[in-house]
Design goal:
The protein is mostly helical. The protein has two domains: 3-67; 80-138. Helix content is 65%, strand content 3%. The chain has eight helices and two strands; from the N terminus they run ββαααααααα. The protein has a two-stranded antiparallel sheet.
């Protein structure tokens, strides 16, 4: 087995897969744990790390997983309930997504349908803007973190 800086590459790859499965991406993992994103990315993609960096990443991963109430909950992930409520809110007030987008020019039909169908998996600034608009103007009842 290949080793870099006293760390087995198979262990590093396993940890990367676990992080992506439980957090969605390395970026979200870095955001949630407070680790610098660039340093995390360098460790996994460029193999630029030392044994101490690897231990810090592993300990942050383990402590973050222990602190989570629901192991299937991925931070910043749009839930099925949110998708359904957004769809119902728009279609109850407008005949189609196109009509909604004509009134609100900052959104387009492709974006709205990607949110509702699940093609857009993670919350973004644009998503929060949509959620805020629907909550304030159309009384959507969903908690957006």
């Amino acid at each position: 087995m290949a080793r870099v800086n006293n760390v087995d590459l198979d262990d590093l790859e396993y940890l990367r897969c676990e992080i992506e499965a439980n957090f969605g991406s390395l970026k979200i993992f870095a955001l949630e744990t407070g680790l610098p994103y660039r340093k995390t990315l360098d460790a996994f993609k460029r193999l630029e790390f030392n044994e101490r960096d690897y231990e810090v990443i592993v300990s942050n991963y383990k402590s973050s997983m222990k602190s989570r109430e629901d192991k299937d909950d991925i931070p910043y992930r749009i839930t099925k309930t949110e998708r359904e409520r957004i769809r119902m809110c728009i279609l109850n007030k407008f005949p189609s997504y196109t009509a909604f987008c004509r009134k609100h020019k900052e959104f387009n039909v492709v974006y709205i349908s990607n949110v509702v169908k699940g093609n857009l998996k993670l919350r973004s600034k644009k998503y929060f803007k949509l959620a805020k608009l629907l909550t304030k103007k159309y009384k959507l009842e969903v908690e957006f973190n």
